[in-house]
């Protein structure tokens, strides 16, 4: 019998996706990489400089300071939002007519544009007319996020927790609702406490969902720009100036395309490296088990 040829027509359905990815991601990335090894004077005048812009960026103390602030902010965000999101998800009812209402209310902060979030908290935390700032000062605790770096960081973290904890809670809730009821029945028969149920029944089945939540929050927190720009403008001083703000100043404010392109590539590699390290560590832990 003649050998039948495989039918590869299904790849035609993937072709539009590949084209979209090429135009939206690969081609712009290659353009940035090309700019990062050149000194661009104007449209027609360019000079190849190799890795000079990369070396200059890695030696720039402003880049290193912004990177340390970025790492600290992302670590604080994950340490606050992941446990809080799990607690909120566990507190939600699993059935009943109020479940849909509560889930919609929980998702409201996610629907607010980033610049509006920054504006809301800018007014909310003002020490003179803001509800939060005025209330804290009335309690006898001096609070001014525009003058004190620590106050600016606290306000920025509270704003991010308010904005994005709902995402972790919704993902965790979806994982909890997928746990079969028989698991809880078996835990009740064994006399497990609430902490034991969470540790031995819920947490193992939430790990896949939590990996997605942590990756999403890690990437998003590392690329935060609009909220701190609106809230503090990067101040007081440079205390809340993150990598994205520094990059925008370099590319748009100073129009240094070569150094900005090298900065962008390093920025991309840092985010990619952190996500890869986290993901591979999770996979390795699963493989050992």
* CATH fold topology of the domain at 60-255: MetI-like fold
- Element string (H = helix, E = strand): HEEHHHHHHHHHHH
* General form: globular
CATH architecture annotation of the domain at 60-255: Orthogonal Bundle
Tell me the number of strands. Answer: 2
Question: How many alpha or pi helices?
Answer: 12
For the record, give the distance between the C-alpha atoms at the N and C termini, rounded to a whole number.
Answer: 48 Å
Q: Taking all residues together, what is the mean pLDDT?
A: 87
Strands side by side in the biggest sheet:
1-2
Report on the biggest sheet: 2 strands, antiparallel
Over the alpha carbons, how many angstroms does the gyration radius reach? Answer: 24 Å
State the secondary-structure class. mainly alpha
Low-confidence stretches: none
| CATH level-four homologous superfamily name of the domain at 60-255 | MetI-like
Please specify the SSE layout and strand pairing.
Elements: H1 11-36, E1 38-40, E2 46-48, H2 52-59, H3 61-91, H4 98-111, H5 114-124, H6 131-138, H7 149-177, H8 181-189, H9 194-222, H10 226-231, H11 243-253, H12 257-288
Antiparallel strand pairs: 1-2
Helix pairs in contact: 1-12, 2-12, 3-7, 3-9, 4-7, 7-9, 9-12, 11-12
């Amino acid at each position: 019998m003649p050998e039948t040829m495989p039918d590869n027509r299904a790849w035609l359905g993937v072709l539009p996706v590949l084209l979209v990815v090429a135009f939206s991601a690969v081609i712009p990335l290659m353009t940035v990489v090309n700019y990062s090894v050149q000194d661009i004077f104007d449209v027609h005048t360019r000079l190849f400089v190799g890795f000079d812009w990369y070396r200059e960026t890695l030696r720039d103390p402003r880049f290193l300071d912004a990177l340390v602030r970025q790492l600290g902010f992302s670590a604080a965000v994950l340490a606050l939002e992941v446990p809080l999101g799990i607690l909120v998800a566990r507190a939600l009812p699993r059935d009943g007519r109020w479940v849909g209402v509560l889930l919609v209310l929980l998702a409201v902060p996610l629907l607010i544009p980033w610049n509006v979030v920054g504006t809301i908290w800018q007014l909310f935390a003002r020490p003179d007319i803001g509800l939060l700032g005025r209330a804290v000062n009335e309690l006898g605790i001096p609070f001014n996020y525009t003058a004190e770096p620590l106050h600016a960081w606290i306000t920025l973290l509270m704003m991010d927790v308010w904005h994005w904890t709902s995402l972790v809670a919704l993902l965790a809730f979806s994982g909890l609702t997928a746990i079969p009821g028989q698991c809880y029945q078996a835990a009740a028969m064994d006399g497990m406490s609430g902490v034991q149920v969470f540790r031995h029944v819920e947490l193992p089945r939430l790990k896949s969902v939590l990996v997605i939540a942590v990756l999403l929050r890690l990437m998003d927190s590392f690329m935060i720009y609009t909220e701190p720009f609106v809230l503090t403008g990067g101040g007081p001083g440079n205390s809340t100036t993150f990598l994205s703000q520094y990059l925008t100043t370099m590319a748009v404010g100073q129009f240094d395309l070569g150094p900005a392109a090298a900065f962008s590539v390093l920025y991309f590699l840092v985010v990619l490296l952190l996500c890869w390290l986290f993901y591979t560590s999770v996979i390795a832990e699963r493989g050992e088990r």
